[in-house]
Each structure stands twice: as C-alpha cells, then as structure tokens.
Design goal:
single chain, alpha+beta, 3-stranded antiparallel sheet, 1 helix, 3 strands, elongated
C-alpha cells in the first residue's frame, strides 16, 4: 500500500528585526504542485524575501497524505 498525496504547501520563515521579539515571520503558501523541486521552492522564497526586504531563514515542505484503509 502506498500513501495518497492529498495536499502540499510550503512554509517560509523570513528574518527581519521588525518582526516580533524573535525577528521571524512565517507564511504558508498552499497548493504547491506535486512536481515542484526544492530548488524552485527556494527560489520563490528568496524572491519573496527580497520583495519584502527580508532574509529567507527557512523553507519547509508540508504534505498531507492519505493512508489507504482495507485491501487495496
């Protein structure tokens, strides 16, 4: 049995002293294409950070996968 991919999103953490006490702000972008590469997701995060005047601290791929039940 294999998992069934239900949904993918990416969470970016931006760094800037203007954000809260720890200087970070996270944003989650939904509906990431199944074939998206780590390099392309990193480029998007870097572009968003540059537009906001921030540094990119981290990028995390989040997946929700269904578990088949029964004999499949």
């Amino acid at each position: 049995m294999n998992f069934a991919l239900l949904e993918q999103s990416v969470q970016y953490t931006f760094l800037n002293s203007k954000y809260s006490k720890d200087g970070t702000k996270s944003r989650i972008l939904k509906n990431v294409r199944e074939g998206a590469t780590a390099g392309n997701l990193a480029k998007v995060g870097a572009a968003l950070a540059q537009l906001q005047g921030d540094d990119l601290g981290a990028a995390t791929l989040i997946q929700r996968q269904g578990i088949p039940i029964g004999d499949e």
